[in-house]
Amino acid sequence: MTCPYPRSLLEDYVDRELPEAEAEAVAKHLAACDACRAEYEAILKLKSLLRRQAVPEPHPEYWKEVSSLILARTVESAPFETVDRPFDQVRSSERASFVRALISVAASLGIFIAALSFGSIGGVATSEDPPLERQVLSTSTLVAGAHADANLEITLSNHERVSKALLLLGPPGLLGRFPEMATALGIE
Amino acid sequence: MNETTPELLKRFAEGDASAFTGLVERFQKRVYYLAYQMLGNHLDADEVVQESFVRIYGRRKELTGVTNFPSFLMRIATNYSIDLLRKRKGHSQMVDDSTALPGEVQVELSRKVRTPDENFKNKVLMEEIRRALATLPPRQKITALLHDVEGYAKSEIAEILDCPEATVRSNLHIARKKLKKILEKRLADKE
Description:
The structure holds two protein chains of two kinds. By secondary structure, chain A is mainly alpha-helical. Chain A has eleven helices and one strand. Chain A has helices at residues 7-14, 20-32, 34-51, 62-73, 80-83, 87-125, 130-136, 139-148, 156-169, 174-177, 179-184; one strand spanning 54-57. Chain A is rod-shaped and about 125 Å long. Chain B is built from nine helices and one strand. Chain B has helices spanning 5-13, 17-39, 42-58, 69-88, 116-134, 138-149, 154-161, 165-182, 184-188; one strand spanning 105-108. In chain B, 34% of the residues are buried. At the A-B interface, helix 1, helix 3, strand 1 and helix 4 of A face helix 2, helix 3, strand 1, helix 5 and helix 6 of B.
């Protein structure tokens, strides 16, 4: 036997989710309708059965263990300080890193150019002492050349320049290590 | 210190890691029990607990706009449980691990003292309910569990499952109808 009374009203009544006036109306209907009362009791009993489900309680230490595992996977592996900085701070820090990187690149470039000019290019540019230019590429050549050629004059300024270059780049110097670079730069 | 959930949440959103610990301790059991009922075994329930809180931590920037944290957390937990349930489909998802872990204690929601015979009958009944629930599609199952076992209102379930309230009503109605049919004999028992 079925009743056309709305099932949703009946379910809301069981769930106590109806306003007082509507709940009273449903209660009146239930008192008069066997089919709806049977349905009402069936839903009530089903809810009671579902609530009786057994949930095995884990080992008492489980809750502490799982908390530790969660913390190890979150707070301890990705702390707030490194991950959760405000957007503004992140941007300013990125800017600072970029400036630092730029300065270091510029400094490296400066040193490289200075090294080249002290050690090699300066020599090329000076037309007064061409023999020394070649000799800078290899200290042994420089010494041998100085003794072999009686006409070779090693001026104080030339000596200083060579010493600085050697100090910066170390023997036998950058161009000595990479002769192709010397060729590319037009140094014989 | 008995902080309210919104207070913990505020501290957590401000970057206080200890508040996260507080949230985990406060809500881990709720997530575990629901996941266990949904998936039927300790290992999967454990995975849901861990994964849900790891995801909460990952989404901490969103938490400032969250007004109902339990619903937000349960949404993450139920979505993960549903995914896991679908993944386990075809496998034996209802592993009876009631004796799998040493030191485990069976806690029943009705804490009556029972005779051995009553205990056996009760275990059979629990198994029947579990099997009946296992026949439901994931969203009907989670709706029935959230509503009839955990006591969430339909509007809250709609928020948790991110669907209209009408869908919750419809899922609950269908789930109850199926369960009534499967458990017909039990429902006819006079207790």
